[in-house]
Write a structure and sequence with these properties.
CATH superfamily of the largest domain: Ribosomal protein S4/S9, N-terminal domain
Number of domains: 2
CATH topology of the largest domain: Ribosomal Protein S4 Delta 41, Chain A, domain 1
Shape: globular
Strand order of the largest sheet: 2-1-3-5-4
Order of helices and strands: HHHHHHHHEEEHEEH
Structural class: alpha+beta
Number of helices: 10
CATH architecture of the largest domain: Orthogonal Bundle
Strand content: 5-15%
Helix content: 40-55%
CATH class of the largest domain: Mainly Alpha
Amino acid sequence: MARYVGPVCRLCRRSGEKLMLKGDRCFTPKCGIDRRNRAPGSQKSARFRRLSDRGVQLREKQKTRYVYGMLERQFRRFFETSVKREGITTDNLIVMLERRLDNVVLRLGFADSLSQARQLVQHGHLMLNGRRTDVPSITVKEDDVISWREGSTKTEYYKNLAKTIESKTLPTWLKLDKQTLTGQVISLPTPEEIEAKFVGKNIVEYYSR
């Protein structure tokens, strides 16, 4: 499946804010938006550019896609599913996005960025409920257990992670055994437990036109 492979700092600059696409590096002086806090492209053209309402909606939708590392077709499918479910569409959408396996791996502290978490899953280092999986988009359920494949516990990455995992903080809907590096979904996330990175109203308006 095609995926954006260009410099991710350009995505932050295009959105006008830090999207934390490089994990801890975003807190260092190497952060692209700190070094060059303007939109990519011609500085002169960007100076006079004024976004329309449609442009604001598009930027919010794109920003959310970047944060969760999704293609347009995949993201729209998530949105359409959230519309069909009972409740508020924006709340349904953010909960569905948070429940993706690659995102849960990131929240557990197994990776510093979403792209790194996705790579861990795709390379088969992790197991879901005792079964090896390489599909980052799987939606986790309550009581699901995420653990490491036995062979992967011998890697340098795992050994370094075991030393630094104590400093990681977890969302309230996840539990982690820091001795075995085994995570569990103890409850489904609620919108109140998730720090929303986007304005859901703008996304709804974008797809409603």
